[in-house]
Design a protein that fits this description.
This protein is mainly alpha-helical and about 350 residues long. The chain is about 50% helix and about 10% strand. It is built from 14 helices and eight strands. Strand 1 and strand 2 form a beta hairpin. It starts with a strand and ends with a helix.
Length: about 350
Amino acid sequence: MPLKLFKRKTRDGRHIWHYRGTIAGDRLRGTTGTADRKIAARLVSEIENRHHKRHLDGPQEVLTFPQAVAIYEKAGKGLDARSARYIAKLEDYWRDTKVKDMTPGAIKQSARDLYPGCSGATWNREVITPTQAIINHCAELEVGGKPLCPPVRIKRFEFETAMKTPVTLEWLNTLCAHARPVTKALVLTMFATACRFGEAHRLDWLDLNFKERTIKIRDTKTKKQRIAHMPQPLLVALANLPRDKAPFYRSESALRRQWDADVATTAEAVEGFERLTFHCCRHGFATDMLRKGVDPKTAASLGGWDDIGLFMETYAHAMQDKTLTDKLFDTPLTREKGQGEGKQDVSRK
């Protein structure tokens, strides 16, 4: 049964053509958005052709990338501000493209086109990862027993990994001595709990329990809430913040500018002070916990890492002191011998 056109009067007095009917077993109805019958008829014809094609050849023949994005976002994915920014660029780039025509090579080329001159890390983060996630999400869905689109596998761009310098307690105390209260509370929160900047930024006073000395870390990257301990220095720093707004109520960009300014002020006041980033706090948590004797499994659990391999490979930093091998011979016997040799040398003088 072909779709039939009929008019409806809008609130502003215009008559707009709508359509209704059944195509390949699907009941369809909607608006063409136009008062011109010829244009409406052409639009309805395209709708009929598209549904016939989907029925005969499967949904893979008609799904476009913008439609795939809509399905992905309807599932509650990619809605945070950063992901939405990446996806908007991708949606515009693949505006009229069917998902089945998006080959791995074409997707990698889109990264070069959208972000020319950037590193492989940027291309992977802002193009490859979200594009693959959107397509593979739709590939898991079926219409009439057929997947919406074929899945895709894309080889990531290679890039040189930049080594992060972990925050140390000395660095932390130096910054806190020169920073504003909000920056001080922020750096202590990230160092003491290993939370990411975005997780710290989302904290509310309801997430803080000063009596139990705990912090609820929510809306995490892994979608798992966790409860972190609140050490005394962090408790004091958070308690000294005003309560009329969220602890870190400023925008992400404003907090970043304040961080950069306080770090720059500290660098001017203290010779040799290194300018580190937010994420160095997470590296500092991992490294310091291990160096203070906490076993890797416990340290990873306390910091919210599910993958202990990633924790050890990426966040734990080796000590660079080559003389640490002296500890192999650091026994009571060798210490006593060393002390005896020292005394003998003194007597000779």
